[in-house]
Amino acid sequence: MSQLNSPFISGEELFAAHRAGKPMTIIDSHWAKTENSAWNAYVAQHIPGAMFCDPLTHLASEPSREKGRNPLPDVKDLQRALDDWGVTEDRPVYIYDAGTNLYAARAWWVLRWAGLDHVYILNGGTPQWEKAGGDVAGGVGALRGRGNCTVLAGSMPQASIEDVDQLSTSNSSEENAGGGQSKILIDAREPDRFSGRKEPYDHQAGHIPGARNLPVTSLLTDQGTMPAPADLRSTLAELGIERGEDVVVYSGSGLHSSLFIAALEHAGLPGASNFVGGWSQWAASFTRKIERE
What pTM did the predictor assign? Predict the structure, then answer.
């Protein structure tokens, strides 16, 4: 099976377990711009037996300037989703998307935040499943299960906007003084958004002062999959990241940051905090400073 304590499972591993009839819950977490198109994508094709998850409605609550574009879901709504997906304490949960890992990673982090331990991302999504020999099915698929897990909200480290504000001020002051940073604040978005050259989603362009840009996509292989843990750990060490507990990660609204945290765990560096509100929450503030390059 997958690497010890890694949040990723390969297409070959999942296909072998599925073909052997091992108990599992599979969740399809494809993203689409509207609720109907997400459902249409699921109906068009999904891994046999997979449950439908719309990241816009199942993994987030109503957006706002105060909370960002994709705030964490309401606990009651998430509990209902876990019940309907048939998530149980004795079965692993495997989550996949169309191949970017971003939306599967968001689902992985939310379920871990909800207190689930045995949750895994299909590394590379549907393409890797099919490459391993797996079929896809069409139609409405599995509509409801019978879950028995209780949401234990807050089971993964988080950073609030106030935490990040304090860290940003501390890091900026220490950098100006030539001292070391207390924690590393990572912006996991692409460079053009970090620099402020473009911003297709949020109120302002730029980044949080004191943040370092490390796009999570730069960690992936040419096939869009997460590399071997040792290779990833070496890359992160070259960038000064040797402990997950030393890292606070943000992105636009908790997608890229969730994948970055999954990458850290894959490398054996758990404990990073996710600023879920991300740039969408920070940029909507009238009082917080921003930087551009």
Answer: 0.95
